[in-house]
Design goal:
By secondary structure, the chain is of the alpha+beta class. The chain has helices spanning 3-10, 18-25, 29-41, 65-71, 91-96, 150-164, 227-231, 238-259, 265-271, and strands at 47-49, 53-55, 79-85, 105-110, 132-140, 170-173, 177-180, 183-195, 199-208, 278-281, 287-293, 299-303, 306-310, 317-319. The chain has nine helices and 14 strands.
Length: 324
């Protein structure tokens, strides 16, 4: 049976009996029971109460393709495709399997990722219908230099979007992690295919915590937060947030294509949480004090009175203060 239709039935957070759901969906009670078991195995938390039936406590905020696309009319001429999947290995991998793009954008969102990834091969935890798992594919022409500041530009796009929608205390941790109040809210993973002579296919994956619970985040190995926690609101429209983020990403990438990272450095500086802070560099003996980034997006760190240039692929950076 169609699991999406069953999920839509349960999305209201109310109790529904197996008989009721079977009649509404045109299937047997046994088929409903098997489908509910599949949902549980996929990570959907179901409650069962004798005499009442099944429910998802608090309901589900399912992604709505129509809401997302209708909100993107401003950029409809730049969009090649938008897809919303029930589950996928990773939204990045899904788009990387496609053909090389030209000047348009393709977007993939999913309710759940089974093999979500972060930077340096880390696992990105992807509880069902709790967060935003979004990837955008687009083309860039030019040599390797066109890629140098891209990660920072994408981070600026997300930070500006969050700030514009009223989220306070948004910060960027080089090269593109999004933090709020000393905790990670979102991360970005950039993957590439192609070469300088023929152009680059870029896939930028964004994972942003929206409604993740303490139980969902037990396996996360660093302090984390969510839009629910930082905003104080118990409900967030993930479809609307997805549209906001897609809009901001397209606008920022277009600026980057035209004017490069230099047009975004003021925005980066506004959100930079490492500037003036002591940091520890993994793979580098000792630490130093950050002095922002250069025109190529490389981190500048004063180590023993000498400014060292740090490339994103070489080290990870950790602020010494636990609050940042």
């Amino acid at each position: 049976m169609d699991l999406v239709k069953l999920l839509e039935f349960l999305a209201d957070g109310e109790y529904h009996s197996g008989v009721e759901m079977g009649a509404a969906l045109g299937v047997s009670r046994t088929a409903v029971w098997k489908a509910l078991g599949k949902l549980e195995s996929d990570g959907v938390a179901l409650e069962v109460t004798k005499g009442k039936g099944y429910r998802v406590r608090g309901g589900l905020d399912l992604l709505d393709y129509d809401v997302i696309v209708s909100r993107l009319q401003l950029h409809s001429d730049k969009l090649d495709s938008v897809c919303v999947l029930q589950d996928v290995d990773s939204t990045n991998s899904y788009l990387m399997r496609g053909d090389l793009l030209t000047s348009g954008y393709s977007v993939c969102l999913a309710e759940r990722q089974t093999l979500g990834r972060g930077r340096r091969g880390r696992t990105w935890h992807s509880p069902y219908a709790k967060n935003i798992y979004l990837s955008m594919a687009f083309g860039l022409s030019g040599g390797a230099e066109v890629l140098e500041g891209l990660s920072l530009a994408l981070g600026v796009a997300v930070a500006n979007c969050l700030s514009d929608q009223g989220i306070q205390g948004v910060g960027l941790k080089w090269p593109n992690d999004i933090w709020v109040d000393g905790k990670k809210l979102a991360g970005i993973l950039v993957e590439l295919k192609g070469e300088a002579e023929f152009g680059w296919k870029v896939v930028a994956g964004l994972g942003i915590n929206v409604l993740m619970s303490e139980n969902d985040g037990r396996g996360v190995g660093q302090p984390w937060t969510s839009l629910e926690l930082v905003s104080g609101k118990q409900t967030h429209d993930r479809s609307l947030w997805s549209a906001f983020l897609i809009e901001s990403l397209i606008e920022t990438i277009e600026r980057y294509r035209t004017n490069g990272l230099s047009s975004l450095l003021d925005d980066w500086s506004k959100f930079d949480i490492l500037a003036g802070k002591e940091v520890t560099l993994s793979g580098v003996e000792g630490g130093g004090v950050c002095h922002g980034v250069d025109s190529r997006g490389r981190l500048l760190v004063d180590i023993g009175g000498k400014v060292t240039v740090v490339n994103a692929g070489e080290v990870s950076v950790r602020p010494n203060e636990s609050t940042d």
